[in-house]
Amino acid sequence: MAKCLDLSLILFVLYVSTAAIAMARNLGDESNEDTEFIKASCETATYPELCFQSLSSYASEIKKRPLQLAETALAVSIARAKSAKTYISDMTDYKGITRRQHGAVLDCAEEMGDTVDRLSKSLKELKSLEDGESKEDFWFCLSNVRTWTSAALTDETTCLDGFGGKGMDGELKSLVRAHIVRVAQDTSNALALINVYASKH
Predict the structure, then answer these.
(1) Measured between alpha carbons, how far is residue 39 from residues 45, 63, 85, 102, 129 in Å?
(2) How far apart are the C-alpha atoms of 20 and 39, rounded to whole Å?
(3) How many whole angstroms separate alpha carbon 34 and alpha carbon 32?
(4) What is the pLDDT along the chain (201 residues), one digit of tens a residue?
(5) Which backbone phi and psi does 93 adopt, to 5 degrees?
(6) How many whole angstroms separate alpha carbon 151 and alpha carbon 184?
(7) Residue 64 CB-half CA count within 13 A
(8) DSSP codes, 98-164
(9) Distance in angstroms (rounded) separating the CA atoms of residues 166 and 187
(10) Cα-Cα-Cα-Cα dihedral of 179, 182, 186, 189, to 10°?
């Protein structure tokens, strides 16, 4: 009797182990497919490597869904813009800052605030498409998203323009530029992925 119980227990353990291994393989395959989807989609972006690096960790949430991919790209860009705005606002106390530099920093911080607002509107509008829209409403909403995201890119360019001229060269300009360029790259990638989503319709 004991031997029968031992055999039954062994068979049960083997069954559970086999099922667990199969499930893990399936999850692994699905995860790989999700990651490959992001990689393939990012090939259309202006900065494909940065695109994949920024979004691959969200593969399990995106799950081969173009809309979710575009939404996530916008969310990443918003977070980057908020961080840049905070960083640049703090630069008003930069040691040795000139009056002209101070003005450029204030203007840039304001531009970053506008970037956050525009990208947030884009994300909200894009999320509204999850509920299903008529074809006419769909393209109207998508046009808004593209317009606001493109305008955010203009804000970022305007910020950098404020530091034009040799008199603005130096560490302060380099520090600000590094943050703005990264925001611009993420925003450009988000716009590309929005266009990928649009191409599916």
Answers:
(1) 10, 12, 29, 41, 24
(2) 28
(3) 5
(4) 545 545 565 555 555 555 444 444 544 455 799 999 999 999 999 999 999 999 999 999 999 999 999 999 999 999 999 999 999 999 999 999 999 999 999 999 999 999 999 999 999 999 988 776 667 788 999 999 999 999 999 999 999 999 988 878 899 999 999 999 999 999 999 999 999 999 888
(5) -100, 15
(6) 11
(7) 8
(8) -HHHHHHHHHHHHHHHHHHHHHHHHHHHHHHGGG---HHHHHHHHHHHHHHHHHHHHHHHHHHHTT-
(9) 28
(10) 150
Pair of tokens at residue 46: 């202006």
Structure tokens at 192: 């590309």
State the amino acid at position 120 in one-letter form.
S
Joined tokens for residue 169: 């060269």
- What are the tokens at 13? 């353990």
Token pair recorded at residue 133: 């829209």
